[in-house]
Specification:
The mean pLDDT is about 95. The chain is globular. The protein has ten helices and 18 strands. It has two domains: about 200 residues, Quinone Oxidoreductase, Chain A, domain 1 (Alpha-Beta Complex), CATH 3.90.180; about 140 residues, NAD(P)-binding Rossmann-like Domain (Rossmann fold, 3-Layer(aba) Sandwich). Strands 3, 5, 6, 9, 10, 17 and 18 form a seven-stranded mixed sheet that branches. About 25% of the residues lie in helices and about 25% in strands. It starts with a strand and ends with a strand. The protein is an alpha/beta fold.
């Protein structure tokens, strides 16, 4: 089978031929229908985060191809999404379905498929436990693949911020890419807050308006953008700022526009640092660094998609084009979410 492999840090991934895997006891073999191409893959490719080579792809959906010995409750052909962060399955957090916060993460050999273990950018992948599968119902697995990260991650951040997102509140969303375009939809589906979408790309801002953003601000000039947002939110300031970039200019922007008793969630991996001083960020501001989401939250995300409340805007590409797709992602030339289709 064809597979997109991480080889070593700083080197482009390679499309290679590998033997198709066979599920062992307790495992499930997935015939991959779609694997999302995530910006965090670039961090994996660029940095020595995991030893050895492995198949990329942590945002996966498809159909069950075979069940390992002892697996019950599923059948061949079932359409499923794969829950991405693989914890130990035994600690307190894992037992509450929050494997994204597994207590044993530092001792595990991998963070998940495509994150140290073989992922879904291949014709088949091994899912180590059926607990990591969520049924897709009538959803198309190709279009649903991004739900497992591009939707789950912002959903997790937004759900924690719901107490702030009351009528009359303002929420700022920075970065309208794979995660950000889902965040806009989730906020419109779940909250009455006024939504201000921010990006340096006018085309992405236009996309945000199509998805329901109330206001858009180009943030290429950070100082001017902060003044524009401040003019919108007034003395109260923004109640919530969701940063899906995480670079220094975007972290600084969020700190400048939130008001007192607010919340900042830094989701992106851009390497920015939030500097603290008295009343900066303002007093009462809570800062969160959320990571992915829980298995039950993935079920909730899929329920929203089945109800037609959210959808991923997908550009699909053949597996053979993976290297070029990653380059397009680096250059900001992906609309919504790229999905590789074996």
């Amino acid at each position: 089978m064809k597979a997109v492999r991480y080889v070593q840090a700083g080197r482009s991934p390679e499309v290679v031929d590998l033997p198709a895997p066979t599920p062992g006891p307790g495992q499930v073999l997935l015939r991959v229908a779609g694997a999302g191409v995530c910006h965090s893959d670039l961090h994996v490719i660029d940095h020595a985060l995991f030893p050895g080579s492995f198949t990329l792809g942590h945002e996966n959906a498809g159909h069950i191809a075979a069940l390992g010995e002892g697996v019950t409750g599923w059948k061949e052909g079932d359409a499923v999404a794969v829950y991405g962060p693989w914890g130990c399955g035994r600690c307190h957090h894992c037992q509450t379905s929050a494997e994204n916060y597994c207590e044993a993460h530092a001792s595990l050999p991998a963070m998940g498929g495509g994150l140290g273990a073989d992922g879904g950018m291949a014709e088949y992948m091994i899912v180590p436990s059926p607990r990591l599968l969520v049924p897709l119902g009538k959803l198309d697995p190709v279009k649903a693949a991004p739900l497992s990260d591009a939707a789950l991650t912002p959903y997790h951040a937004i759900k924690a911020a719901l107490p702030w997102l009351v009528p009359g509140a303002d929420v700022v969303v920075v970065g309208i890419g794979g995660l950000g375009h889902m965040a806009v939809q989730l906020l419109k589906a779940l909250t009455p807050a006024r939504l201000i979408a921010c990006d340096i790309d006018d085309a992405k801002l236009a996309h945000a308006r199509q998805l329901g953003a109330d206001h858009t601000v180009n943030t290429r000039d950070g100082k001017r953008a902060a003044e524009e947002i401040r003019a919108l939110v007034g003395a109260r300031g923004a109640d919530v700022a969701l940063d899906f970039v995480g670079a220094q200019p975007t972290v600084d922007l969020c700190a400048r526009v939130v008001g007192r008793a607010s919340r900042i969630a830094v989701v992106g991996l851009g390497g920015g640092v939030l500097h603290y001083a008295a009343n900066q960020p303002p007093y009462g501001c809570e800062v969160s660094v959320p990571y992915w989401g829980s298995r039950t939250e993935l079920m909730e995300v899929i329920a929203l998609a089945e109800a037609g409340r959210i959808h991923a805007d997908v550009e699909s590409f053949p597996l053979d084009e993976a290297v070029g797709v990653y380059q397009r992602l680096r250059e900001g030339r992906i609309h919504g979410r790229a999905v590789l289709v074996p």
